[in-house]
Amino acid sequence: MRNTFLPFSKPSITEPEIQAVANVLRSGWLATGPNASRFEEEFAAYVHCPAAVGLTSGTGGMHVSLKALGIGPGDEVITPSMTWVSTVNLIVLAGATPVFVDVDRDTLMADAARIEAAVTPRTKLIVPVHFAGAPADMGPIRELARKRGIGVIEDAAHALGTEYRGKRIGAEGTCIFSFHPIKNITTGEGGMITTHDAEFADRVRRLKFHGLGVDAFDRQMQGRSPQAEVVEPGFKYNITDIAAALGRGQLARADEMNRFRSALALRYRERLAEMDEIMPLKDPPWPMLHSWHLFIVRLDIDRAGIDRDTFMNCLKKRNIGTGLHFRAAHLQRYYRQAMGFKRGLLPDTEWNSDRILSLPLFPDMTEADQDDVICAIKDVLAEKKQ
Ligand SMILES: *Cc1c(COP(=O)(O)O)cnc(C)c1O
């Protein structure tokens, strides 16, 4: 057994990135400033999108997006329940109604047919999730949304560097990225909205900084115009220069880090192929490049003879950390109790919610670390069979 704990994720931070953050600390300008502007430009260039807006989190990005689209009471927003709860929380906090769609059993993504079946005259927005680093099938989803005049905001928290039909996620439509420390690049906490809609870009830019008609940092002013006035009430979600300086260094290494993730993921697939109790997710059939944000497997609880939570605990006792992405949102306490969602509503989501776990995967993980994971899994399964 390993004698040190292997976390399921760990950010990769280099000395130049630490220096860049230190330089910001020494510069006298800590909040939104020149680094934030450059990070937005470099991010927009990376995903091939005309506009990018830096934020304190992906969740903050979803908040200003829902506000910008005027989502409120009486509106329905279609989202998978197999997602991070922030989206669902914000829909409810906006006074709107989340409408959950089931996901494909092996990719954990909702397709256009499932989404179309959930559309009603009240549907205002669809929030597809690019899951674990693979892209959702956006072609048909965009097409149905366009025909019916419904908005689409892509949850791209897992999709930095992901490609769909030869284009990076973010190169089309409106996407929200996250730079939480477990994501493919990090700024500590942070997020980015990318959009092709110039009006939407202006609106979220304003809403993320008090609703002032200016940004937090004006390059001519080298600060914020003191005459700025509130155009509409806004929030306070502007990214700091401390975070942006780290983000710029991370973004420059994004493709390299994704290649490390990819090599480890393919090695996991080979090693796990012989284990009947462990079922990795499958690649979607459409042309894509996977960014391998997460390596998710499902435990065959009948074959293994233990439930998923016990399995995760057994791995933890062997110094192997795991993650859970995600427990179905509609089965969490508030959504069951206050909104009446019940088991049975989304069979494939629930089946996965009971069986999924994320194995350690991060750029600086070694093959020896990975061998420890495989050994621990074999050990737990063998012990349960006795
Ligand atoms: C991480 C994550 C978010 C939220 O991002 P934050 O930056 O942590 O607010 C949203 N959706 C999904 C699917 C995520 O994994």
SS content category: alpha/beta
**Architecture of the largest domain, according to CATH?**
3-Layer(aba) Sandwich
Task: Let me know the largest β-sheet.
Answer: 4 strands, mixed
Q: For the largest beta sheet, what order do the strands appear in spatially?
A: 1-10-9-6
Strand content: 5-15%
**Parts with pLDDT < 50 across at least 5 consecutive residues:** none
Q: Would you tell me which CATH topology of the largest domain applies?
A: Aspartate Aminotransferase, domain 2
**CATH first level of the largest domain: which class?**
Alpha Beta
Distance between the termini: 19 Å
Helix segment count?
14
Commentary on this structure:
With 386 residues, the chain is an alpha/beta fold. It is built from 14 helices and 14 strands. The chain folds into 2 domains: 240 residues, Aspartate Aminotransferase, domain 2, CATH 3.40.640; 131 residues, Aspartate Aminotransferase, domain 1 (Alpha-Beta Complex), CATH 3.90.1150. The protein has a 4-stranded mixed sheet, sandwiched between helices. Strands 3-2-4-5 form a 4-stranded parallel sheet, sandwiched between helices. A 3-stranded antiparallel sheet has the order 8-7-12, with no helix packed on it. The two termini are 19 Å apart. The mean pLDDT is 96. Pyridoxal-5'-phosphate binds next to α3.
Highlighted features:
single chain, alpha/beta, Aspartate Aminotransferase, domain 2, Aspartate Aminotransferase, domain 1, 2 domains, four-stranded mixed sheet, four-stranded parallel sheet, 14 helices, binds pyridoxal-5'-phosphate
